[in-house]
Amino acid sequence: MADRASPLQNRLADRLRRPGTRPLLFALSLLVYLLLVLTGKNIGHTASAAFFPVLTAAVCWGWRAGLAAGLGAFPVNALLLAAIGIDWRIGMLNPIGLTGHVFFIILGLLIGFLRDLYLQRRRTELLLEEQIMQRSADLERARSAEQRLESVLEQSADGVFITERDTEKILLVNRAMLELAGMGREEIIGGQPYCFMPDIGTTYRTTLGEEITIDMQYYEKNYLVQQKFLEKGMLRGWEYYIINGRGELVPVEANVTQLIDGNGNRAGAISMLRDITERKRAESELNRANDFLNNIIENSVECIIVSDSTGHITKINRAGLALMGYELEDLIGTTPMSVSSVEEGLYETTAGEEIWLSREDIESSYARMGDFLRDGKISNYASYLRHKDGRLIEVEHNITMLYDPQGSPVGSVSMTRDRTMRRRMERELSRQSELLSQANRELESFAYSVSHDLRAPLRSISGFSEALEEDFSHQLPDEAKAYLQRIRKASGRMALLIDDILKLSRVSRHEMRRGQVDLSALASDIIAQLREHSPGRNVACTVEPGITVHGDENLLHIMLQNLLDNAWKYTIRQASPEVYFGRADEADPRAPAHERSRPIFCVRDNGVGFDMAFADKLFGAFQRLHAEQDFPGTGIGLATVQRIAGRHGGRVWAASSPGNGARFYFTLG
Questions:
Q1: Domain map of the chain by residue range?
Q2: Which of 31, 407, 483, 665 is the most buried (most CB within 10 A)?
Q3: The pLDDT of residue 264 is above 90
Q4: Contact predicate 474/468, CB 8 Å
């Protein structure tokens, strides 16, 4: 019954709590009271009508209002009856009226008290209901948060497990931890973290390919780390090993945090493990690369100095220490300026020379450092370093700024080379070059003088021989005439030799005027001239068209003239002579492969050829492989060819065999 009335009671209670409801009900009860009084027929009925306001006051406002309404019922009834002209004392001052008045007081007090008890009980019930609902909501939120936490942990790429404080049993483990340890969830839950720890005295192979034996020292070190966790309640970056499903040691990095309950007490711990195999492998590779780089730096023959962002030396190799005569501890932490700054004055160098450095020289040298500060690098920067004994070392720097990935400077590296020997060699080379130039000038002058001085006696010999033959030929025997002819022929040959010597000398002194040269056109012109001089010969000549090079046209003309002249001359005994000029790769695929990085040209013939055993004599002056009576010449032509090719930065060589013609190859730089 009470349960069935509860909804009605709830609705009544809700309505009574609305603003304005209780005054309205009390006003209605007063209206009923007045109507009953005004329409009543006797005093008893009139007095009983006060029951409604007393009851309404008690129900609406509680026992205090009910008591006040009960106490006020008697005077209100008396006044109202007196107002309408009824004598109230007869019915109200008798025992029944007084008892009724007391009844109103007790009624208001009792009804109000019951009403207050009910409301208090209702408030208590509502408060309990709210608390129950709040707890249910809190439990639901906690359950949802727990589910979300488990989902997050399950999705985490790091291995996670949670242990209880007192028993150290594992309460929760995620999928990544199962994969990391190579174990099932039922094998881990309820166990302790030692289930995936290595055993003492056992040798394992790590995922890095190393072999490690676990000893007591390993666990003693981890014990000290765990003590720090107990002191601080947190661990970051703890590295140790666990065993995977293949029995290998996996290097992991653990972050461990205490779990605190609502009372602030430690309830357990959550451990997050990350497989750092790849990181360790990368660190190992980086260490090997650093060791390799340090080995290169340390064993470099040049002085290498590394400075930090503040300009202080952090590393210097053995060559640098040997160059300046310092110990490593003397230079680490100092700046390069401490060994490179000089003042105006007279100094002795490590080369044993004395030099004067003026202020202008020093300022000019330092001015180039502005290029380094602007561009972040400087090359071939010549300056001086001070040796520990005070002497100056003439050096050349290549300095580069070092930057981090964000582009901020973090230091610099300087590669310094001792210029002492090079400068000494440069000076010696300059002196030798000057001596060579002087010798060449003297040789050219000698060659010119010799050739000029030899021409007069040759002319005399030739002239007097001719005069003897003309004036006394009828008196001379035939043998004497033959001698005179041989003298004249030898004089003519010597004149040709002098001319060729002068030509060879001019090739060496000729000032190069480079430009585009059409070798095909030059070869065609030379062959045309050869045909004019030997109209009776029918030589099959082939010139590859379109061959152009960059060089001196006059010298290249002389070179082709000599090569084609030789080809024309040495094919004179062939029934079907052939001469060819073109590129070697099309002319002869057997051309040396080491020269194929640049164009190779070839002059080829099908003449008498020569024995390659004597090829080293081909390009020497006055060297000949055939008899003069067979093939006339001075032996200067190929020497001239070689000199012209050399002046163009190229080279010349030949290939042949007796009776199979000759091939002369040449390149131009």
A1: 2-131, 156-280, 299-418, 425-502, 510-666
A2: 665
A3: no
A4: no
